[in-house]
Structure formats: C-alpha cells, structure tokens
Design a protein that fits this description.
Layout (H helix, E strand, L loop, with lengths): L17 H23 L5 H27 L5 H37 L1 E6 L12 E6 L3 E3 L5 E5 L1 E10 L7 E6 L23 E4 L3 H18 L7 E6 L2 H40 L8
Parallel strand pairs: 1-2, 6-8
Antiparallel strand pairs: 2-7, 3-5, 4-5, 5-6, 7-8
Helix pairs in contact: 1-2, 1-3, 1-5, 2-3, 3-5
Length: 290
C-alpha cells in the first residue's frame, strides 16, 4: 500500500485591512497637498489660509479620538493611530514646503504681477523717480547696455552694473545689474550680465532684492566718481530677452515644485502605510478588525 503524503503545513494567512490601508494612504496625501497649496499659493487672505489649515488639523484629532474609542471597545486602533501621526506630519510638511515654494518662486511672481509693466521706455527722457513702481520694462528701440561704462563693487560676490543708454548717448537712472558677471575695476568693459549678447534684447526685470540693491548702489556711486556720471535715482534691472516669459516661468516653477513635493509625499506615505499594514497583519493581535 502506498503511504499517503503528509499534508503540507499551511501557516496562518495574513488578514489585511484594505480599507484601513486605503484611508491611511489617501488622507495624509490629501492633507499635504491641500495645506501645501493653500500656504504656497496664498489661497485667500492670510486669515483665510490659516483657517483652512486649522480645519485640516481637525481631521487628525478625529482619528486620534477614533483610536481611543476602538481601544476601549477592544477593536484594532492601529490604522487610526497611523492616520493621526502621518496626518500631523503631512500638515507640518505641507506648511514648510508651501512656505519654501512661496519664498522661492511665488512671492517674486506676485510682486512682478503687482507692479507696473511699461513698454517703449526711453532711458534718456525718463528718470527713476517717476518709474519707481515699474517691475517689467521694454526699452525703446535704440536703447542698449553701455558696457564701456560698467562698474563693479566686491563684497564676497562681485556686484556689477552698467547704464542703459539711448543711441549711445545720454546716461540715465536705469542700470542693468548682476552678480559675478563682470571683471574687476581694472577691466570694467568685461560686462556679461543677463542677455546682453543677444540681438534684439530690450526687456528688463526689476531687481527685487534690497540686499543686492544696496551693493549695486555702491557700484553706481563708484561709476559716477570714475566716469563723471550723474544718476540721481538709479533703478536696477536684469537684462532679459523675454521678461514676460521669465515672470510666467516663476509660476510654472512653483507648480512643478508643488507637484514634485506631492509625489514624494505620496510615495513615502504609501510605503509607510504598506509596512504598517503588513506588520499589523503579522502581529497576530487577538483583537477584532474595526
């Protein structure tokens, strides 16, 4: 007689709480994306944004309450605790990433779009005081960067300036500026800031940094003393071939950074939720699944 083969040993099957895993993935990701968008893109006023973030923070508290309730009822509180912890991390991360995106890209975008844009500006006929609120400029045909009258001021970085002239005559209050893009004071004509080398360039974007503007001002003072120029109200710009595109690109960079941050947060959350569910299933808890 043939002996019967011994039955293969079958271990305990993992019982995975799919609904808990799905909620653990979706809720923190949604909270991160919402908070990051509200903070980074300034949805509404500061007060409105703060209220939205506070409303998002109410959900983790609800999950924490659910975990305590399930624990008292001898139900599994694991996924409630996971959602509570990761939702708090998502809200904090969304605030921090949103602030970084705002400070890096969107604050400049809002500033430029809130300032005046001016076409056909004649640098020989207009002064800086009357154009102090200008953020984007298209100079008149014939205007160019006068590299022969450039100057630099060094303080760790080299701060370079060169006046914008009209038909090679008549100096103005409008200066092209940049950092580490020119030679020393002994070689002032070695000016390579912005799109100066591209034919047809006549646009410029206002320099928004007050810190950089201070050193550009010192470079202008040196240029006035060295060349005998007079610039009563200097304004500083970066020379751009398409300044409108540069402003739109700031918004696009903000969107791209937001999408990348949400993708990273989603991958981290899904991975953590999966590990948590597997560990919970292998723990062999005697408690019933919620």
């Amino acid at each position: 007689m043939k002996k019967r083969a011994a039955p293969a040993f079958v271990g305990p099957r993992l019982s995975v709480n799919f609904v808990g895993w799905l909620v653990s993935c979706c809720v923190p990701i949604a909270l991160f994306a919402t908070v990051c968008w509200v903070v980074g893109f300034r949805v509404g006023s500061y007060g409105g944004s703060a209220c939205m973030v506070a409303a998002c923070a109410a959900f983790p508290l609800y999950c924490h309450r659910g975990a305590l309730r399930n624990d008292k009822l001898d139900l599994d509180p694991s996924w409630h605790r996971f959602v509570f912890a990761w939702s708090l991390l998502a809200i904090l991360g969304g605030v921090l990433v949103g602030l970084v995106i705002d400070a890096t890209f969107l604050v400049h975008y809002r500033t430029y779009t809130g300032m005046r844009w001016k076409n056909s500006l004649d640098p020989a006929a207009e002064n800086g005081q009357a154009n102090a609120d200008v953020g984007l400029v298209r100079f008149s045909p014939g205007a160019a960067v006068s590299r022969d009258f450039s100057m630099s001021f060094r303080n760790v970085d080299t701060y370079c300036v060169a006046p914008v002239t009209f038909n090679s005559s008549g100096f103005s209050d409008f200066w092209v500026a940049g950092k580490n893009c020119c030679g020393s004071r002994e070689l002032p004509s070695d000016f390579r800031c912005g799109d100066w080398q591209l034919s047809g360039s006549s646009g410029a974007l206002r320099v928004l940094s007050d810190h950089d503007g201070l050193y550009y001002q010192l470079a202008v003072q040196q240029a006035e003393a060295h060349y005998g120029l007079n610039s009563a109200h200097p304004l500083f710009f970066t020379w751009e071939l398409h300044p409108e595109v540069s402003v739109s690109h700031l918004w696009l960079q903000g969107i791209q950074s937001f999408a990348a941050a949400v993708l990273v947060a989603a991958c981290a959350t899904v991975a953590a939720a999966t590990v948590s569910v597997i560990q919970q299933s292998r723990s062999g808890m005697p408690k019933r699944s919620a």
